[in-house]
Amino acid sequence: MYKIFLCFRYLRSKAMPYLAVLGVALCVWLLLSSVSVMSGFLNKIESAAKGLFGDIVIESAGERGIAFYDEFIREITAKDRGIAEIEAAEPFILSFGMLRVEGDRNFRQHVQIAGIRLPGRADVSDFEDGLFVQANIAAPTFDPSLKKVIAAIERQQQLMRKIVQREFAPQLEKLSPAKRKLVLEHWTTLHYLSDPNLSPEKKQLLRQLANAGLLQNEALLSLHSVKKRQAELETLQAELAKAEARKTTETELDELREAIDDIIEATGMEQPAYRVILGLGIPGLSFRTEKSETVRYLVPGHRIILYVFPLGKRFSPTDISPNIHKFSIIDDSCSGVSSIDNKLIYVPFKTLQKMNNMAGEYDAENPNVLVSPARCSQIHVKVRGKRLSERELRKISAEVQRAWLDFQQRNPQATLTPVSIDTWRQRQVQVIGPIEKQRTLVAIILGFMSIVAVTLIFVILYTIVVQKTREIGLLKAVGASSRGVAGLFFLYGVIISLVGAILGTVGGYYTVKNINTIQDWADELFGLRVFTRQTHMFAKIPNDVDWTATWIIMVSSIAVGLIGALLPAIRAARMQPVEALRYE
After folding, report:
1. In the chain, at which end, N or C, are there fewer CB atoms within 10 A of the end residue's CB?
2. Which residues 6+ apart lie within 8 Å of 12 measured at CB?
3. Which residues partner with 572 through β-bridges?
4. Half-sphere CA count of 492, side-chain side, radius 13 A
5. 222-251 pLDDT, tens per residue?
């Protein structure tokens, strides 16, 4: 080891090896940063898709849906005769409609309406992780406690006050302490922060915060009203259930229902069957700041009107009218992918089943005779295990396919149209495919940059061989073998590439981890914002390092060092001591 150290010291060159190290480090840094970010985008799409739709999706072509879904679910999840790899499965309805906000005649937004069963939805997906009121609650419902709902809105208002303090700090400083306190406590006083010097963006933000604060206060008043009359409402509902059980007169039933409707109308909170969970990102219902903070205009306690266009059974293109009903917002959901969150609204499964003409129908004369079974649009399947490969999922998907064909033979009415059974990746191929191609293209382009590193190492080591001809001759004259001299230059190339790889990896790691901060810094200094948080698919640039790619890049960089050192090592090994000394 000591001899190797002496040889390195004897053959050392001043600045050129450092240039080669810098070249390798630059290549590794760029490659690691770009691949990690693009892999991060793919991972976020994967987690969002699996979090919302499970691992495998069974879907009927067209709008007629799948019947006897619960029977099929019980078959594939049964412990004794089901598919062992399947953990859970749940039905899902997807329909189209229009959303309007109560009291706003101008607002209309086309949406997709999803019918889900809670808390069963949490068994097949990570739906609960993205909820606002019921975040990370194992068994979310359409009827959370009012205490949790009110606390969530208060957290939202606390966030808005922090935004005001951060974005309008100079204007707050100009106010007296009393006015400053008033501004931070009452949204109607935000106009005190108006300043002719404010940029158009800051003026717009001020208006948005004021509007959001006023709307949230309206919702809080409604929720406190519900809280006061909750006991009275529960008593009336219990009396109605008892009256229906003993089959009392229609007059008494109507009186109880009317009393319940009066309370609902007065408080503005519909019963759990008519409550919704909004997708966080529906245009016009919230906005996102440049710091990636989401401010909601509509919160739990507000009411919306849904127009559901029934595309299920008995659909006639010449005679279609929407089913309309008022719904109370009870929560909102964020998957992290705006293309999902900006159009989906979640309602109770049975409610949408009825509004979409997919509920079961029984004979009018004999209520025990089923005329048309209830249907769903899809069945979402959760597979055991955390990170199954696409190949493994496709094997399980094939088992589900066989189970479905067997079930359909025994139940011909199960579906009226073909059924597709796909993994989450097969369903998201239109999104994932282009990103994977872009990642591959970037890797290839940056991979070509490694040629620069190979060339640098080659030129530098070759120059060292030429410059150190006398020293190499002396080493061989005192007994150094040709293989030893060649190995010395190979080791030189490996050390250059290894040091460069380590420096590039460290730089790439910190670049990826702080990429959102770097983006903010570039925007602040140069006005350069590549990733706009208000409009892009994700709230933030993914900042997880791809460690698999890291090891591949590091090993490749060492290989680059060996390739670059190959010719100089051969030239040094073939050099004869006498000729080298005579040349000098």
Report:
1. N
2. none
3. none
4. 34
5. 898 888 888 888 788 888 888 878 877 777
List CB contacts of 490: < 8 A, sequence separation 6 or more. 562, 565, 566, 569
Query: Could you state, in order of their start, the residue ranges of all structural domains in the chain?
Result: 2-48+430-583, 62-417
Place of tokens 């509007």: 211
Q: Which two tokens stand for residue 122?
A: 């949490």
Tokens representing 115? 């019918």
Could you give the count of Cα atoms lying within 13 Å of 111 in the half-sphere of its Cβ? 32
* DSSP conformation letters of 346-371: EEEHHHHHHHTT-S-EE-SS-TTSEE
pLDDT tens digit sequence for 186-204: 898 888 888 888 888 899 9
Q: With beta carbons less than 8 A apart as the criterion, state whether 455 and 462 touch.
A: no
User: What is d(CA 283, CA 384) in angstroms, rounded to the nearest whole number?
Assistant: 36
**Quick check: bond before 348 cis, omega within 30?**
no
CB 168 within 8 Å of CB 193: yes
* Cross-strand partners of 92: 378
By CB neighbour count within 10 A (0-12 exposed, 13-18 middle, 19+ buried), where does 147 fall? exposed
State which H helix or E strand residue 56 sits in. Answer: strand 56-60
Using H for helix, E for strand and C for coil, what is the string for 466-483? HHCHHHHHHHHHCCCCHH
Q: Which amino acid is present at 440?
A: T
| CA-wise closest residue to 457 among 563, 573, 556, 553 | 563
DSSP class of 415: B
